Amino acid sequence: MITITFLVLFLCFKSSTFLSFINKYGSAACNKLLDFLPLQKELIFLVVYHKFLVRKIMNKKKILLSLVVLLVVIQFFQIDKTTPAIIETETFEHIATPPPAVATALHNACYDCHSYETKHPWYNYVAPVSWWIKGHFTNGRKAMNFSTWGQESLEDQKHLLHECAEEIEEGHMPPKGYVRMHANADLDEATQAALIAWLNQASK
Ligand code: HEC
Q: Domain ranges in the chain?
């Protein structure tokens, strides 16, 4: 029974029919809610899992076992790590020509989330951690993408550089949790000051 349920769920998710079913028959409000949930598919999966499996199995050993099975099964849902090809002439470095120290600092502290040059550590291959991290670089790229810098108007480019200076100054970017996991994103004060000075100057 468990195996069959998993198999059905797996097939549903692979072809996303399950989600499109919900989208089709769910109310408008439900769709809105789904838009706001970065882990929509995964959450639905967990809810369904809980409803149909955990509730039915009272035995602790079986719950543990099914959790292990769940952990194994979710590894089939790898995040999409592919990116569009980077066009050299559209990159921030090509357009804004920052000095090497600035470019390096931004590369170390920002590019994993704000460019198509994301480096994937081993845990980006392990669900559900990878699902959570995916949100960072998808939303980060949406807010600002150094790889497609040329697609912004000159005005927006300047505005973004100003925002960058502000975010760094206020200690919001790079996010603290990220810095804890990435030592080279932990910019020292001198590097930060130089970065902020250049960003402010370039945003004028
Ligand atoms: C761990 C991923 C991550 C890293 C690393 C990161 N950012 Fe972000 N950044 C985000 C996300 C996600 C958003 C969009 C959501 C938000 O505003 O929190 C964002 C938003 C921004 C914005 C837009 C803010 C706004 O008001 O729209 C700026 C500017 C920014 N980041 C600058 C930087 C700079 C500069 C660095 C490096 C020093 C950096 N970020 C590093 C994830 C990251």
A: 2-74, 88-202
